[in-house]
Design goal:
The complex is a heterodimer of chains A (325) and B (165). Chain A has 325 residues and is of the alpha+beta class. Chain A has helices at residues 2-20, 29-40, 116-125, 207-213, 219-224, 310-318; strands at residues 43-51, 54-65, 68-75, 81-86, 89-94, 98-104, 126-136, 139-148, 155-161, 167-173, 179-190, 229-231, 239-246, 255-261, 266-273, 283-287, 290-297, 300-306, 320-322. Chain A contains 6 helices and 19 strands. Chain A is globular. Chain B contains 10 helices and 1 strand, in the order H-H-H-H-H-H-H-H-H-H-E. The longest helix of chain B has 28 residues, at 75-102. Chain B has helices at residues 2-10, 15-27, 30-46, 48-65, 75-102, 108-113, 117-122, 130-138, 142-147, 153-156; one strand spanning 161-163. Chain B is rod-shaped, with a radius of gyration of 27 Å. Chain B is mainly α and 165 residues long. Chain B is 70% helix and 2% strand. The relative contact order of chain B is 0.08. Chain B starts with a helix and ends with a strand. Strand 16 of chain A pairs antiparallel with strand 1 (161-163) of chain B.
Chain lengths: 325, 165
C-alpha cells in the first residue's frame, strides 16, 4: 500500500510539470479536486437553476460508501421528476413513481477523478485560472474560471468549497459574457448522516424488461456498424471518446452514437434511420447550455447534442458524412 | 352602377357604353370593390367547387404561416386561455359560415378565419424526444465528471424552448 502511494506521488510529480510548462501557470489541481469531491463527498442540498430567463429549484443528495455512489436528484417545481443513480445505473421517474426509463452507463467508467487525458484536454482548450473568493450558502469558496481559447465553446466559472472542493455554484457564459445558465446552492449540508432509504430506488415494475433492453452490446459488433459514418468537422480540441450502436429510449431500432470531448464539454452525435421519424421536429432546441440540433441527411436523421454554443452543434451536424462500404 | 357593371361583365353592353363604364370604374376606386364582388359571384355560380377549394387552401396556408405559440406555463392561465381560444375559434368558425352564406363576395372572410386555431394546436405538440437524446448524451459527457449529477438539471427542468433554424 505504501509502495503504491509512493508511486502515485512520484507519478504526480513527473507528470505535473508537463502541464505547468505550457502557456502560463494554470490550476489543474482545482478541476481534479472538484471532480474528486463531486463523487466522494456525502452531501445534500437545494439549488437554484437559472436558464433562458427562467428559475427553478431542485434538491440533490449524494452518498458515497463502500458499495459505490448513490444519488438522488429531484425537481421541486412543477411536475414531479427525479433521477436516482446507483453507480452506473440511472432510474428516471416521471410523475408519481412511475419509472419510465433506465439509462445505463455503457462505458462502465467510474473513475474516481479526471483521467490524465481529460486533464490534458482541459489544459489545451481552456485557460484555467483562479478568480475571487466568495461566500455561498454559508461556505467559503474559491472561484475558478475555465476560459476557452476559441468561441466554439462556452466559458465556465465554478465556485468550489475551499475545504471539501465541492461545487457550490457554477455559471456558463457565452463569448459576450452573457450568462447562459447558472446554478447555485442556496442550502447545503456536507458530511454527516443522510437517510439512505430515501435515496434507494423504489423497485420499478417495468425495470426488468427495460434493463434487458439496455443490456450492453459487445464492443466489436458495436464498432463495426459505425464504421461507415464520419464526422468531418469536429471542432478543434474535441476528441472522440466513444462510438457505438445502442438502443435509445423511444426508438424501435438502434441508433449510432458518437461522443466527443474537449475535457469539459461533450458533443454527442446520434444517427438513426429516418423510418419512424417523419414527425420529428427538425432544427434547434435549447435548454440552458445544452443545445440539440436535428437534421435529415439522406435517409437518416442526424441529431447533435452538446454543452457548446448552437453554432458548434450545427456545424457538427452539417459535417456528418456517410461513406458507402 | 351595379347594374352597369353586371351588364358589362355579361357582355350585354355596346362598345361605347362599355367604354364609359370602364372609364367610371377607373376614376372611382369605390366601384373596384363591386367589380371584384361581381366577379366572385360569377365564379361561384359557374364553378362553386373550385372556388371553395381555393378558399380552404388559402385559409390553411394562412394558418400554417401563423407563428407557433408554445405551451403556456401554468395550468391556471392555461385553462383560461384555452377557454378563450376555443371560444374565439368557435365564434370565428360560426361567423365564417354566416358570412359566406350571406355575403359570398366578401374578401375579408378568409382573413377573419385565420386568426387563432393554430395556436391551440401547437400547444399540445409532444416534446420532440429532446429528453431521450439529452439523457443518453449526459451519461458520457465529460461534464458529468466535473459537475456530477447537477448536470441532470437539463432533463429535470420543466421548460423547453424551441427555435426554428
Amino acid at each position: 500500500m505504501k509502495v503504491r502511494f509512493a508511486l502515485i506521488v512520484a507519478l504526480f510529480f513527473t507528470v505535473f510539470p508537463a502541464f505547468a510548462n505550457t502557456d502560463r501557470q494554470v490550476d489543474l489541481d482545482w478541476p481534479q479536486i472538484i471532480a474528486f469531491a463531486t463523487h466522494h463527498t456525502d452531501y445534500s442540498g437545494t439549488f437554484v437553476y437559472q436558464h433562458d430567463g427562467l428559475m427553478e429549484t431542485a434538491r440533490i443528495t449524494h452518498i458515497s460508501d463502500q458499495n459505490g455512489e448513490h444519488e438522488k436528484f429531484e425537481s421541486l417545481d412543477g411536475p414531479r421528476r427525479e433521477f436516482i443513480r446507483n453507480n452506473n445505473e440511472v432510474w428516471w421517474y416521471l410523475g408519481d413513481h412511475k419509472a419510465v426509463q433506465i439509462e445505463r452507463q455503457y462505458s462502465g467508467k467510474s473513475f474516481p477523478a479526471l483521467l490524465p487525458e481529460q486533464l490534458t484536454a482541459l489544459n489545451e482548450n481552456y485557460l484555467i485560472h483562479t478568480a475571487e473568493q466568495a461566500r455561498i450558502a454559508g461556505f467559503d469558496t474559491q472561484a475558478i474560471v475555465f476560459q476557452p481559447k476559441d468561441t466554439l465553446r462556452y466559458t465556465h466559472k465554478m465556485w468550489a468549497h475551499r475545504d471539501s472542493g465541492l461545487l457550490l455554484k457554477a455559471a456558463v457564459m457565452d463569448e459576450r459574457k452573457q450568462m447562459v445558465e447558472q446554478y447555485t446552492f442556496i442550502q447545503l449540508k456536507i458530511g454527516g448522516d443522510f437517510e439512505r432509504t430515501s435515496i434507494m430506488p423504489i423497485q420499478p415494475t417495468a425495470s426488468l424488461e427495460q434493463q434487458s433492453q439496455f443490456s450492453k452490446l459487445s464492443e466489436t459488433s458495436a464498432q463495426a456498424s459505425t464504421i461507415n459514418w464520419k464526422v468531418v468537422a469536429v471542432p478543434p480540441g474535441f476528441k472522440k471518446i466513444m462510438e457505438m450502436r445502442r438502443p435509445l429510449h423511444g426508438k424501435k431500432t438502434d441508433v449510432i452514437h458518437f461522443v466527443f470531448s474537449d475535457g469539459l464539454a461533450g458533443i454527442s452525435v446520434f444517427i438513426e434511420n429516418l423510418g419512424n421519424n417523419f414527425d420529428k421536429k427538425l432544427g434547434l432546441s435549447s435548454r440552458g447550455a445544452i443545445h440539440v440540433y436535428s437534421k435529415v441527411k439522406d435517409d437518416y436523421l442526424v441529431t447533435v447534442v452538446g454543452e457548446v454554443p448552437p453554432r458548434t452543434v450545427m456545424q457538427v451536424a452539417d459535417s456528418v458524412r456517410y461513406r458507402r462500404p | 352602377m351595379k347594374q352597369e357593371i353586371s351588364a358589362l361583365m355579361d357582355g350585354e353592353l355596346f362598345e361605347d357604353d362599355a367604354e364609359a363604364v370602364l372609364d367610371k370604374l377607373k376614376r372611382n376606386p369605390d366601384t373596384h370593390e363591386e367589380w371584384r364582388t361581381y366577379h366572385l359571384i360569377g365564379d361561384i355560380l359557374r364553378q362553386p367547387d373550385h372556388v371553395h377549394v381555393n378558399l380552404s387552401i388559402a385559409i390553411r396556408e394562412r394558418l400554417q404561416a401563423e407563428p407557433t405559440v408554445l405551451a403556456p406555463s401554468s395550468r391556471a392561465i392555461n385553462n383560461g386561455r384555452w377557454f378563450a381560444l376555443s371560444a374565439a375559434a368557435s365564434i370565428m368558425a360560426l361567423s365564417l359560415v354566416a358570412w359566406l352564406s350571406v355575403q359570398v363576395g366578401s374578401e375579408s372572410a378568409p382573413q377573419l378565419a385565420m386568426q387563432q386555431p393554430s395556436a391551440v394546436h401547437s400547444a399540445s405538440l409532444p416534446s420532440n424526444g429532446f429528453e431521450d437524446y439529452v439523457i443518453a448524451h449526459q451519461e458520457f459527457s465529460p461534464r458529468l465528471d466535473v459537475y456530477g449529477m447537477t448536470s441532470y438539471v437539463h432533463t429535470v427542468a420543466r421548460h423547453q424552448k424551441v427555435e426554428q433554424p
